[in-house]
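Handout, tutorial session.
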Amino acid sequence: MNWLSLDHVQLAIPVGSEDLCRTFYGTILGWREVPKPESLAGRGGVWFCTESFRIHLGVEKDFRPAKKAHPAFLLKNLDILAEKMAAYDVIIEWDNNLEGYKRFYADDVVGNRLEFMQKENG
């Protein structure tokens, strides 16, 4: 097998929360919304991308936010994101338990746990 890369990560969101997620992922994080294929558009949800990765937010009827499982996003300058999130009253939780990384956790607008990290000295 020749694994190439990770295509996308999917997170669950509650029914009807797409606009809230557009504000969080689009406005606060600055990710670009991408249209879903017509064959999947009727399922709800919303997709985002950056130059490095794609995130699919899929509607789940019996939604429960992921409090332990989470994606981790690597940034060049974590402090810029922390300042922007604070300006939008997003609560962040700094964690220094992973050697070689500066990082924090935050919940998205529907309660899913997200990790944001920066390599130290790199």
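The second record follows below. Compare its token runs with those of the first.
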Amino acid sequence: MSGNESKVTRMIILGPAAKISQSELVGKLHMLELPLTIKSTCYGSVIHGEEKDVLDAVSKIRKLDPPNIFTKDRGFPPGDPRRCRAKRGGAREGFHQLEKEFELLGYVGEALDCPEVVDLKEPGKISPEEFRKIAWECEK
């Protein structure tokens, strides 16, 4: 084993309403003093290390702003030549997907911050007489 088999990489993505900036995020990750590779990105950061350390960092960082700090797996460590924009040129594969997901994060954060009770029952059918009554009232 080269040592990379037991390591994982996660992206930490700041939503549009996040209360911290990318530089503050990276600073706080460094202050955790965990044995991680930390890379600042346009959307937040990428962290790489032993799974327990990565998950510990994610757990602590998300507590700073739970509805606006998101995380997802990334299949390659920071700087991997198969995905590194500096070595390949242009946007990395998956960046445009991330860009589309980012557009929705404001809505997700708002829903997490102010949850509402939702009724999941299908509305029932109404009788033709009830429909006529509603239609008649709308014509008035």
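Points raised in discussion: The longest strand covers residues 7-14.
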